[in-house]
């Protein structure tokens, strides 16, 4: 029997260079995004954590004060009130926005002529700049010359001071956010609906299941991953609301719309309490993290139907 011999083939320098180049190509593509993430997200976040332990007005030398900024937050009624206002805003915004997005997705998940046009129309508010949208809606809510009051007067409703009323200002801000983001979230629910197997609906129809029961037994459980994504991103965005409040109400009337992010802006860039503002930001991050973990625990379980 002849013995087999294995000869090693020398790898040329050019082949080695080519291999190294192919290995480096992916990092060249992700490099700009990674640098942006590092420079504009990770490093500022670490800087905020460090600054939160100092008393600093951006003019004088920072003075280390330990946890004093965090202690001050929990003894400051204005900070606690701003958090409560933000929670109220989230409660106003998220349920209505999510339900409307699901209903729109159900309506647009049909093979009807011209349906693509309506899908695009509902997404248009999300494409507009939040500041521009806020300016337009500020004019709509204007108590004297606003379109909304003029329309309601046709039905005999007296003029309302929408943005000047402590009871109505925050719901108005939430309504603008709902109008802007419902169509965007509808796209995710629409994608989720189109990923549900059709044979499940056919089997349910053969079993005599009606539309309502089919929705709660098949559609809604299988939309759970999409619902989790929409809820997490929407809640995070709602806790961070700023631009709409800044343009439309400036936190007023009084403190009716003084949400947490606007309060951070005031402390940091109006009163120059940068250490205190950084501590407020860290607290907001922890609150959002806890809320996100709770959502993942109670909404994140996937539902599957295996008919094999």
Topology:
Elements: H1 13-51, E1 54-55, E2 63-64, H2 68-74, H3 77-108, H4 115-127, H5 130-140, H6 147-153, H7 169-194, H8 198-206, H9 211-222, H10 224-239, H11 243-248, H12 260-270, H13 274-299
Antiparallel strand pairs: 1-2
Helix pairs in contact: 1-13, 2-13, 3-7, 3-10, 4-7, 7-10, 10-13, 12-13
Structure, briefly:
The chain contains 13 helices and two strands. The protein has 308 residues and is mainly α.
Strand content: under 5%
What is the structural class? Answer: mainly alpha
Average pLDDT reading: 89
Uncertain stretches of 5 or more adjacent residues:
none
The strand count comes to 2
The gyration radius over C-alpha positions equals: 27 Å
Molecular shape: globular
Percent of residues in helical segments?
55-70%
Give the ordered list of helices and strands.
HEEHHHHHHHHHHHH
Ends: how far apart?
53 Å
- Give the strand order of the largest sheet, numbering strands 1, 2, ... along the chain: 1-2
Number of helices: 13
Give a quick account of the main beta sheet: strands, pairing sense, barrel closure: 2 strands, antiparallel
Task: Give a written overview of the molecule.
This protein is mainly alpha-helical. The chain is 70% helix and 1% strand. The protein has 13 helices and two strands, in the order αββαααααααααααα.
Name its key features:
two-stranded antiparallel ribbon, 308 residues, 2 strands, mainly alpha
């Amino acid at each position: 029997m002849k013995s087999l011999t294995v000869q090693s083939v020398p790898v040329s320098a050019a082949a080695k260079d080519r291999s190294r180049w192919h290995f480096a190509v992916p990092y060249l593509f992700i490099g700009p995004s990674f640098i942006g993430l590092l420079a504009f997200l990770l490093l500022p976040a670490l800087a905020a954590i460090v600054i939160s332990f100092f008393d600093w007005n951006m003019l004088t030398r920072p003075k280390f004060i330990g946890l004093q900024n965090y202690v001050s937050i929990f003894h400051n009624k204005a900070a606690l009130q701003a958090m409560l206002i933000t929670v109220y805003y989230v409660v106003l915004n998220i349920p209505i926005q999510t339900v409307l997005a699901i209903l729109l997705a159900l309506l647009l998940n049909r093979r009807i002529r011209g349906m693509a046009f309506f899908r695009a129309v509902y997404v248009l508010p999300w494409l507009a700049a939040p500041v521009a949208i806020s300016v337009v809606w500020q004019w709509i809510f204007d108590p004297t010359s606003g379109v909304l009051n003029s329309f309601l007067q046709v039905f005999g409703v007296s003029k309302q001071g929408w943005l000047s009323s402590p009871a109505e200002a925050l719901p108005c801000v939430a309504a603008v956010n709902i109008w802007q983001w419902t169509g965007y979230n509808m796209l995710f629910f629409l994608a989720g609906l189109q990923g549900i197997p059709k044979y499940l609906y056919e089997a349910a129809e053969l079993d005599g299941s009606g539309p309502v029961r089919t929705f709660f037994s098949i559609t809604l459980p299988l939309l759970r991953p999409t619902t989790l994504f929409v809820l997490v991103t929407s809640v995070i965005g709602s806790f961070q609301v700023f631009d709409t409040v800044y343009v439309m109400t400036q936190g007023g009337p009084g403190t009716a719309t003084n949400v947490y992010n606007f309060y951070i802006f005031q402390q940091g860039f109006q009163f120059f309490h940068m250490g205190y503002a950084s501590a407020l930001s860290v607290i907001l991050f922890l609150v959002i993290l806890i809320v996100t973990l709770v959502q993942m625990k109670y909404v994140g379980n996937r539902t599957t139907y295996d008919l094999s």
